[in-house]
């Protein structure tokens, strides 16, 4: 299992992927986000699913890009179309043998970037069959892998108008909620950002100890916020008088 998250806001794009790889009882780590292209004409690809399918699809995509003799794709639509062509070729070659070995052809991908002829950044979710959907302003994120645990905080707190600094925090909290609730997702994490106005990419990698302050702050304050939440009608019938705690909503967190 894995957890990959792509966010698009007014400021640009954010990508986050965990680095845990599980195989039976074995644990290892590997990078699940790949930057393609060079210079300003770059885009990221994040994947979940069989590693062998992912590596072969990316190898075919790199071969296609080399055939272009240094010329990048003109738009992100061209890039995602090239990726799906490679994915379908791998499916034709490998799906039957994989399924005979009881392995699912289950590669999902999030692809995001802004190329020379794009008016703005774009981000797509590609399914194993090669079809895709595009992120929009109403739901400004896409996730693949173990998606259930990190979804609530994004649905509640993230919008297209969220600034990049806050969106990065929400991306981390979404991952941390997933990591906390499943053993198949964990550190290290890779994070990338694309600032639309400057048309610049940034990326970094973080391990467990790098984010201890943020993790401890969240654990401490989410408990405190629950304590300060106004009591519901249940307190009158379900909590004995001796156990009731006065709530002070004006206390600083």
From TrEMBL:
Q: Name one Pfam family in it.
A: Proteasome
Q: Which GO terms describe its biological process?
A: proteolysis involved in protein catabolic process
| One GO cellular component term noted in the UniProt record for this chain | proteasome core complex
Enumerate the Gene3D superfamilies for this protein: Glutamine Phosphoribosylpyrophosphate, subunit 1, domain 1
Q: What's the protein here called? A: Peptidase
Membrane-crossing segments per the record: none
């Amino acid at each position: 299992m894995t957890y990959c998250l792509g966010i698009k806001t007014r400021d640009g794009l954010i990508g986050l992927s965990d680095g845990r790889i599980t195989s039976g009882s074995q644990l290892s780590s590997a990078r699940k986000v790949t930057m393609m292209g060079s210079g300003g004409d770059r885009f990221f690809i994040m994947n979940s699913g069989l590693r062998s399918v992912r590596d072969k699809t990316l190898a075919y995509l790199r071969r296609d890009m080399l055939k272009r003799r240094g010329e990048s794709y003109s738009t992100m639509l061209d890039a995602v179309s090239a990726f799906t062509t490679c994915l379908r070729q791998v499916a034709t070659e490998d799906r039957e043998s994989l399924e005979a070995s009881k392995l699912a052809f289950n590669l999902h991908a999030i692809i995001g970037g802004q190329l020379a002829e794009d008016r703005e950044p774009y981000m797509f979710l590609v399914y194993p069959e090669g079809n895709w959907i595009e992120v929009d302003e109403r739901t400004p994120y896409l996730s693949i892998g173990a998606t259930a645990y990190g979804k609530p905080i994004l649905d509640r707190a993230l919008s297209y108008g969220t600034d990049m600094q806050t969106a990065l925090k929400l991306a981390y909290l979404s991952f941390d909620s997933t990591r906390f609730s499943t053993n198949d997702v964990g550190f290290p994490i890779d994070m990338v950002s694309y600032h639309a106005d400057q048309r610049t990419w940034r990326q970094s990698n973080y391990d467990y100890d790098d984010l201890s302050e943020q993790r401890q702050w969240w654990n401490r304050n989410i408990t405190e916020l629950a304590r300060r939440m106004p009591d519901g009608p249940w307190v009158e019938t379900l909590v004995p008088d001796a156990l009731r705690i006065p709530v002070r909503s004006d206390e600083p967190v």
